[in-house]
Amino acid sequence: MQAIDLFFPRLTTVSKVVITMHQKPDGDAMGSALGLYHFLQSFGHDVTVISPTNWANFLDWMPGIEKVVDYERWRDRGKALISEADWIFCLDFNVLHRTKHMEQPLTQAQCTKILIDHHEQPQAEAFAYGISDTSKSSTCEMVYDFIVASGHADKLSIDIAKCLYTGVMTDTGSFRFPSTTASVHRMVAHLKDLGLEHTPVHEAIYDNFLETRLRFIGYALLNRMEVFYEYNTALMYITKADLQRFDIKTGDTEGLVNYLLTIRGIKLGAIVVDRDEERKWSFRSKGHFDVNTFARTHFEGGGHHNASGGRSSDSLETTAAHFKEVIKLYQNQLQ
Ligand code: 5GP
Ligand code: MN
């Protein structure tokens, strides 16, 4: 993988471009993809964002999202776009299998692939150009850096600002995680100078759920949470019946894991959701406990030091029991 600045001279050659991100895109994945989309469009490129799967409703206000192709619904169209592309930008994921059914067409595509990502241990050999920086708050911050470093900061528009602010806000937990550096605040200051209104963005993302989701959270906190004080760990498990009872949609379980870390002294929070195809894990930690390694070692996943995810093909009961066994190995590190 060559340094991303070597790609900058090619920006002005009109090209067919695909931008993609990890499955079930969150605010950072969708925000970075759409921010880059508006930027590249301003050069006259033919740009399409392809999402590997559907996404949460609370992203539907984002400028340009109505043009995003959901690969699970429009597979033939997605395949054709990938095979015709000159460049494919891969944003906010480190390994191609995080694009689910797109992994194979992406691997086979012979065009120029570019990575912009902040997860640990990227699959660098799969990309011609790229930047992987785990110290960055978000892929949105990296797309901002990309735009500024390329010498085209004059192309930053309000639409780009809204998209990029979204991912920086969501991935930093609204500017509270340690990844919230001075550069993050400088970037936001720049976007504000350009005229960004941040309150509507915050409200569109966080104050946009149905009543059922709030009742679901209450139910889960009461009935589906276990706390293991000897390991400073809290676990939440959500059954298929729970998802049906409260009509839970993509995105409705996002953020739930953070409640676990609000208990005094808790250093590891984990939630497992019984999805159709797999049991999906989310891990969050405070301080030095490394949930990237934890997810990689025990739950077929990875991510960042303090936030990671994983999966299991076992039943909900089995994978939850496995978790309760595994934390015993980390009793010292969790003190
Ligand atoms: P979440 O718990 O919100 O799904 O994910 C937390 C962080 O870990 C995000 O940065 C996400 O991209 C990453 N992540 C989630 N699941 C996986 C996974 O299965 N593999 C890897 N490598 N990263 C993941
Ligand atoms: Mn991210």
From TrEMBL:
<dbReference type="Pfam" id="PF01368">
    <property type="entry name" value="DHH"/>
</dbReference>
<dbReference type="InterPro" id="IPR003156">
    <property type="entry name" value="DHHA1_dom"/>
</dbReference>
<dbReference type="InterPro" id="IPR038763">
    <property type="entry name" value="DHH_sf"/>
</dbReference>
<dbReference type="InterPro" id="IPR001667">
    <property type="entry name" value="DDH_dom"/>
</dbReference>
<dbReference type="GO" id="GO:0003676">
    <property type="term" value="F:nucleic acid binding"/>
</dbReference>
<dbReference type="InterPro" id="IPR051319">
    <property type="entry name" value="Oligoribo/pAp-PDE_c-di-AMP_PDE"/>
</dbReference>
<feature type="domain" description="DHHA1">
    <location>
        <begin position="245"/>
        <end position="328"/>
    </location>
</feature>
<protein>
    <submittedName>
        <fullName>Phosphoesterase RecJ domain-containing protein</fullName>
    </submittedName>
</protein>
<feature type="domain" description="DDH">
    <location>
        <begin position="16"/>
        <end position="168"/>
    </location>
</feature>
<dbReference type="Pfam" id="PF02272">
    <property type="entry name" value="DHHA1"/>
</dbReference>
